[in-house]
Amino acid sequence: MKPKKLAIKVMNDAMANILRQKTAFEKLMHCWADLAVREGVLRGIICTQHLDWDGDQINREIAMQISNGVMKE
């Protein structure tokens, strides 16, 4: 899979104001929930595309994609 070009996304003022009101714990929980959703979506896509892969191969691919290629082997 070819790495995607990185893009900087800027949030709007309304979202920034909402996040400013969150505690550090609430922000961290939001990040963990987001990561769990991404992992689940990637697992479904990878399992569908690579029916012959075992769990370790799938987990390595998920880690590589979530880390933007930092986790290679």
Output the structural class: mainly alpha
* Low-confidence regions: none
Integer average pLDDT: 90
The overall strand count is 0
Strand content: under 5%
Summarize the main sheet.
Answer: none
- The SSE string, one letter per element, is HHH
Annotation field: number of helices? 3
**Radius of gyration in whole Å, from Cα?**
16 Å
Q: State the end-to-end CA separation.
A: 15 Å
Overall form: elongated
How much helicity do the residues have? 55-70%
Write a structural description:
The protein is mostly helical. 64% of the residues lie in helices and 0% in strands. It contains three helices and no strands. It has helices spanning 13-21, 24-49, 55-66. The protein is elongated. The two termini are 15 Å apart. 0% of the residues are buried. The mean pLDDT is 90.
Question: What labels describe this entry?
Answer:
mainly alpha
What topology emerges from the helices and strands here?
Blueprint: H1 13-21, H2 24-49, H3 55-66
Helix pairs in contact: 2-3
Structure at a glance:
With 73 residues, this protein is an all-alpha fold. The chain is built from three helices and no strands.
